[in-house]
Amino acid sequence: METQQLSSVENQSETTEKLPENEHSSVVNNVFGASIAICNRCRCGSEKEQDTNTLLFTLVYPDLYLSGQEKSLIQHSFADVVEHSLSLEQTVTAWCDMCVIYQPTLLNEKEGKNIPDKVPEVPLSARKPCRYGNNCTRSGCKFFHEKDKTKSVEDSGINHNCTSWLPLELKIKLELDGKVKVKEGDSKDGVSKINQQEQDNNTEEEGYELYQLMAVVSVVQDPTEPGVKDNIISCVKVSPTHHVRHQGSACSQWYLFNDFTILPITQQEAVFLNLDWKLPCVLLYSQTNFESHHSVEVQSPIAADVFEEDIQLAAKGLHLHFPFKPLAHDELPFAGMLVAMDVEFVTLNQEEAEIRSDGTRSTIRPSQLSVARISCVRGEGPQEGVPFIDDYISTQEQVVDYMTKFSGIEPGDLDASVSNKHLTTLKDTYIKLRFLIDIGVKFVGHGLKNDFRVITLVVPPDQVRDTALLFQLPNKRMISLRFLAWHFLGIKIQSETHDSIEDSKTALWLYRKYTELEKEDRVHEALKELYEAGRDLQWKVPGTDDT
């Protein structure tokens, strides 16, 4: 469990934990960080203390064996490891102002807990297999043998049917001498022996602060190809105040985050560790009375003036007239306002795949899409249908396919030296979209789920009106925007190429049509007619060859 090495610039360093006190530090540091004091002591007796802030603590593991007795294992709890890491002492050689010389200091050993001379052994599955397999007779062979798995489990004394070594709760106390005392909490399998109020009273009387395990980040290894197909997953405990599905109840739920996949899991699965394939790398413990220490409401730092700031990167575009009209002061977005939106993409690298001997296709590296153009259109008001954002996104990476037929992006549109478009940065447009999301506007578009996924924006479902989903019967195919426009609006779009402003307006008109059908209670009937017409025409717009 790792991440940041705490060390001193002079001689012996001792780290102790404090509450954040720096008023000028960032919000992230104040909420997630811890203040530490680094005390440098020379053996001449001089001391120098420095206060700093850290977001991460590296776990430093004590010795596993008693000195000179290889078979005598010391059973350390997780609380022992945390305590040893928070009150860490190290010996280094550094300059002493009193001695006017580089002075080495001796390691001050306490309770037999020393800094290990070597890192923990590599998990068995990460070692290369031995050519002789289980028939290997070489003593001390460093390669992997199947028989080592059983032996290692028996020697370690680990019972995988028992509670995980990771405690669900920790009690931490900062003593007057700067030392940190840590012990495990009373919670077993997620059930506390006493209620929360009594638990808080007890910890306050003892001087301990109670921390709960809220997240576990692990590296999952493929035993067949260790180090090649590693994957990082996160297990996060969502508290009742942040759990939409059970909002207002006392329910907390663990979730597994694996790329774009989110699955509810049991608490036991979150803390279960098998070092042969699952290696924990980050643990997050949060103070139980956290909200009482940080009661200030966090407000979005993005204000409406982001629409007044315009970044234009294209030299030729400074004196051109663009097909959009920025929002005026009297028409700033508000909660519930309709905004039609469409996004176009280009490809940065092609998909790499291979055909296996059995005829199946395996993807080695998927294609990578990059945002090229984002358009937003007013969905209501006197200027309904007028775009207020039409940004081309500059990219420093090489584009291998502009996909002009489907994106409308031409070579040179994203090049600041030759482009005549409104070329800007992704950050500039991203902040505008973030403001629209935070203010509560409702986005209308076709296939918005994929658009937001590539942009890496999370939008609440109640703020999305996706015509691809609205005009879809259960368990049936999705209908293209072009066919929907022809069937319901009687217009032909995307004749030669795609245009994000045209697509945004079309999605807005389709949404208006859907609301009309909904008022007349004719949605299901209209969708049945749509699918019948699509089957008859093979989903092709009459007079064209494309679907």
Summarize the structure.
This protein has 547 residues and is an alpha+beta fold. The chain has 13 helices and 23 strands. Strands 9, 10, 11, 12, 13, 14 and 15 form a seven-stranded antiparallel sheet that branches. A six-stranded mixed sheet has the order 21-20-19-16-22-23, with helices on both faces. A four-stranded antiparallel sheet has the order 3-2-1-6.
Instruction: Calculate Rg over CA atoms.
Output: 30 Å
| Number of beta-strand segments | 23
Largest sheet: 7 strands, antiparallel
Number of helices: 13
Query: What does the oligomeric state look like here?
Result: single chain
Tell me the fraction of residues in β-strands, as a range.
25-35%
Q: Class by helix and strand content?
A: alpha+beta
Mean pLDDT figure: 76
Helix content: 10-25%
Question: Judging from the principal axes of the Cα atoms, what is the shape?
Answer: globular
Beginning-to-end CA distance, first to last residue? 53 Å
The low-pLDDT segments are 1-23, 105-126, 152-163, 189-196
Overview of the structural elements:
This protein has 547 residues and is an alpha+beta fold. It has 13 helices and 23 strands. It has helices at residues 27-32, 78-86, 146-156, 196-206, 267-271, 290-293, 404-407, 426-439, 448-455, 467-470, 481-489, 500-519, 523-537; strands at residues 12-18, 34-41, 47-54, 65-66, 69-73, 89-90, 93-96, 101-104, 169-174, 180-184, 209-220, 231-238, 253-258, 261-265, 278-287, 338-349, 352-355, 361-365, 368-378, 387-393, 423-424, 442-445, 464-466. Strands 9, 10, 11, 12, 13, 14 and 15 form a 7-stranded antiparallel sheet that branches. Strands 21-20-19-16-22-23 form a 6-stranded mixed sheet, sandwiched between helices. A 4-stranded antiparallel sheet has the order 3-2-1-6. The chain is globular and about 90 Å long.
